[in-house]
């Protein structure tokens, strides 16, 4: 039987009277690529920020591997194996591509406060960083300054950086947003490859990406769960058709 | 910085007192160190403190008092002043570090003003007069700092040690994380870094070294005055850093030399100095936005 890695119970977030997320019960199974979809303003990003602790929930609990992480600090959940990406590409623009990945690898050396040591000590991480860059097809850009990379490559770099922490659960916030068709294909492939070995929860607008990647889909509308199931189940749901695709498609 | 750059800086520093009046040179170095310490925060951590005079001036008072009243040697005095600035930096940092941008600047300013009024009102500070006649004393008990060259080389050694420390911190594992935080704080958090603690360390380091600069200055000029803790001094160090180029290692040195040099050269024309320095600042901000050193580095890189 499959086991659930991430669970939310009655997750609710109110912003001064406005309920952005209401009573969401989500369960992500280990090994799945789970997609969170819904029309604009459905509360997808808010759910995301709640899960990654960037926002505190008003009520409800979040369980990761059965453990309550509702009140953890955002930096601490990374140590427990949850790493997120961001809607806009989250890279360190004026560092080199290699340094971007290396700063994530550096976490486990535990030398974040070592101001008296030479940064040459970090070069022992270079091989590992190169291997990660290679896995996302960026090794030939290792010495470039990140800001010079094309948008799709920045997203790939972001995934490599996230992988550097070897997370059990990757949270991807609209990984293909703002991409051209070619980059979308590349990123989809990359997520599929990465998803073979770990659990991914992603917010995504692009339905063709969701249909090819997701094992399971949760549809949100006005902050609440409207439907859940496989792509086939969800897309056959009349309520989803109406809410998500608009009445004219019914 | 490569080996040639280090050797050049050291040789220039060793020869400087034979070309420039040593007292001016010492003033330049004290402010250069102050600006370098400030730049560790503004340029490398992206935090704008508007209260660094509290560390600079606070350390000057403590050092001056320790040397005068407790008859300590100059080195012990400077160390006590430095330690005081570090402790004060920790207090300021803990209170301010959670705030961002202008709010951070305002909290540091408010705290620094408290220190200013303490320095004005406390019995040991000499009030409006400040501390006068601080003895330079004997370094290690046998080097007479009343001789200008001895004093100069002591200041130069202190400057170089601190400058090296800043260079080390910038090019360390800590420095890497610091630049990651400056570049994209939310991402650094999601990678698991406790950004507040790392920023706090940068703040304390910066405050400590600003204290070294202030304490050294009180030995050199044998005074600690209200000017050292006033908000003008906090403003001036921002000016120096921006004119020279924030986020560059040598920028604050060039900035401090420019500003203090101008003040010194133009002191005969009175209050017009302020106007000229203001104009210099405007020209710098408009023409070279990265500061003097920042622009030069860019031109240098472009030509290759």
Describe this structure in words.
Chain A has 250 residues and is of the alpha/beta class. Chain A contains nine helices and ten strands. Chain A has a six-stranded mixed beta sheet with strand order 6-7-8-3-9-10, with helices on both faces. In chain A, strand 1 (4-15) and strand 2 form a beta hairpin. In chain A, helix 3 (97-105) packs across helix 4 (126-135), helix 3 (97-105) runs parallel beside helix 5 and helix 5 (151-164) packs parallel to helix 6 (181-195). The longest helix of chain A has 15 residues, at 181-195. Chain A is globular, with a radius of gyration of 19 Å. The model of chain A has no long low-confidence stretch (mean pLDDT 85). Chain B has 304 residues and is an all-alpha fold. Helices cover 76% and strands 1% of the residues of chain B. Chain B has 14 helices and two strands, in the order αααααββααααααααα. Chain B has helices at 3-19, 22-45, 53-69, 74-96, 101-121, 148-170, 173-183, 185-190, 195-221, 226-229, 231-244, 251-265, 272-287, 291-302, and strands at 138-139, 143-144. A two-stranded antiparallel sheet of chain B has the order 1-2. In chain B, strand 1 (138-139) and strand 2 form a beta hairpin. The two termini of chain B are 18 Å apart.
Keywords:
heterodimer; A: 250 residues; alpha/beta; Rossmann fold; 2 domains; four-stranded antiparallel β-sheet; 9 helices; 10 strands; 34% helix; 25% strand; B: 304 residues; mainly alpha; two-stranded antiparallel sheet; 76% helix
Layout: helices, strands, pairs:
The complex is a heterodimer of chains A (250) and B (304).
Chain A: E1 4-15, E2 18-29, E3 33-37, H1 44-51, E4 59-64, E5 67-68, H2 74-80, E6 82-84, H3 97-105, H4 126-135, H5 151-164, E7 169-173, H6 181-195, E8 199-203, H7 207-213, E9 216-221, E10 224-229, H8 231-236, H9 238-245
Parallel strand pairs in A: 3-8, 3-9, 6-7, 7-8
Antiparallel strand pairs in A: 1-2, 1-4, 4-5, 9-10
Chain B: H1 3-19, H2 22-45, H3 53-69, H4 74-96, H5 101-121, E1 138-139, E2 143-144, H6 148-170, H7 173-183, H8 185-190, H9 195-221, H10 226-229, H11 231-244, H12 251-265, H13 272-287, H14 291-302
Antiparallel strand pairs in B: 1-2
Helix pairs in contact in B: 1-6, 2-6, 2-9, 2-11, 2-12, 3-4, 3-5, 3-9, 4-5, 4-9, 6-9, 7-9, 11-12, 11-14
